[in-house]
Amino acid sequence: MLKILVCVSGGGTNLQAIIEKQAAGELGDTKIVRVISNNANAYALERARNAGIEGVCVSPKAYESREDFHKAFLSAIDEAAPDLIVLAGFLVVIPKEVIQKYRNRIINIHPSLIPAFCGTGYYGLKVHEAALERGVKVTGATVHFVDEGTDTGPIILQKAVYVCEGDTPQELQLRVMQEAEWEILPGAIRLIAEGKVQLG
Ligand code: GRF
Q: Which of 181, 182, 189 to mutate to test the pocket of ligand 1 (most atoms within 8 A of CB)?
């Protein structure tokens, strides 16, 4: 069984999609063993509680230094002994010690077709604002492995979504979530659980 730890920061709709796919038996042989948020008020923690999943908050604000936060974050991950770490709307830069210890076992969902509209400063609504500003006709979402860069690891799955005339950033964000993110993030987890993702 693949033990999954999900890291969240906000509303948790991607976490919810994973929970629902698992409940429907569509996630393969997996178990969500812990949800970690950097934000005590993240509704994603409520979603975890409602699903009977342990949710913990590890907030940088609670630590004297970034180094202390990194140690606490790594410890909160190690306690759960996950096989796979899923970043689902997680807005904290992953410490290098976590990437080194869990190399090729951390995945992230990004709300664009990487390499477009990604990297430092491209997160959440900003991604869709940039896509609309550029005038692209097609955008989408990407699931990729996490390495030391920002949105630079090997791509696992992508799904395209049409931009509609007059879209606001909020409307585009919701369509990308509904039509792409909530499908390919669980889809990537299932492929990994079934041993169908090979690196290199
Ligand atoms: C969304 O913008 C999503 O595209 C990105 O993180 C944000 C929040 O997602 N991955 P969630 O609702 O917290 O899963």
A: 181
83, pLDDT greater than 90: yes
Cβ neighbours of 139 (radius 10 Å): 26
How big is the chain, counted in residues?
Answer: 200
**Residue 72: CB partners within 8 Å, gap ≥ 6?**
58, 62, 63
b (16+ CB within 10 A) / e for 160-196: ebebeeebebeebbebbbebbbbbbbbbbbbbbbeee
Per-residue pLDDT tens for 132-166? 999 999 999 999 999 999 999 999 999 999 999 99
Distance CA 28, CA 143 (A): 18
Residues annotated as catalytic (active site), given as ranges: 110
pLDDT exceeds 80 at position 200: no
